[in-house]
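Human: Here is a favour to ask of a fellow structure person. Comparing notes only helps if you start from a blank page. I am asking you to supply a protein in sequence and C-alpha cell form. Write it directly below this note and I will take it from there.

Assistant:
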Amino acid sequence: MSTGFHNQRILFNDNGVLSDASIALNDFRSGSLALPFVAAEDALYVGAEMPFNHLYFDVSAANAAPSSVAIDTWTGTQWQPAVDILDFTASSGASLSLPGPIVFRPDEDNQGWLLEEDSEDVSGLAGTRIRLMYWLRIKWSADLDAGTVISHIGYRFNDDQDLFSFYPDLNNSDFLESFKAGKTDWKEQEFQAAQSIIMDLKKRNIIWFPGQILDFQLFKEPAIHKTAAIIFAGLGGSQADEALKAEKRYDTAKNLERYNLDLNADGTLQRAEKTIKSSWGDR
C-alpha cells in the first residue's frame, strides 16, 4: 500500500451516518467506495499525520453530473476553506469524471491547518476516536451520480500516456495479456512505482510522510522508468535486460537537484523550500 492506517484515514459521512473507508481506499490493489454523494447532506473526510496539498483519486465508475469540489482544512475550532484548488478529475464541468489528482493550498493566512488530538472533536466526526491527525473535508457543489465509485485515494505520479511516451512498446495488448490475463492498463504498476519512490525517499530519511511531496510532477519521469522496470521484471526472463535498463534510467532520473518537499509541515511549498538542494544518495 502507498498509504496506511497509521498515516491516512478516510471516512464518509452519508447523511450523518459515518463509515470508515480506510481499508477500502488505502490499498490500490483492492477495495472501493460507492459515493452516492448528496450535496446537502454528505462529506468525505481524510485524516493524515501531516499536512499535504494533493491526493490522487482513482475513479472506477465516473460521475457525469455537473459539480465542483470544495476543500476545507480543520483549524482546531472550525473548517477553513482551502485556496487555489485544481481538480484534475473534472471533465466538462463534472468532478470525479476521470482519475486524477485534486490539488489545493491550505489558507495559511486564516488560522492554517492544525493537528487535532482526537477526531471526536472535529465537526462532522463525532463518535470517532482517531488520534493525532490533520483533517481535510471534501464536498461537492451538487449531487453526484449515484453510481460514482472511487477505488483508491493516494499517490500516483504518471499514467499510461506518460509511460508510452518513453516506452511505446508497452502500448501493446500482448504485453498486457502476458503480464496478467484480462489486463487492460498499467495502472497498478504506476501506483506501485509511486509507492517505490516514496519508500526510497523514506529509507534515505528525505521524507517521513508521502504528503511531503508537494510538487508531484517533478517525480513523473522517475515514476515512468520505475513503472517500466516493474513491468519488464514481471514479464520474465525474456525482458530481464529491458528491466535492468529501465531501473538504471530510474536511478538517474530520481536524482533531482531539488525535490520541492514540505520541510516545515504546513502543506505549502515555501520559497525557501524551493531553493534547498538535495541528492537522493547524500543521506
Remarks:
- Helices lie at 22-26, 160-166, 173-179, 187-203, 220-234, 240-253, 271-275.
- The first helix runs from residue 22 to 26.
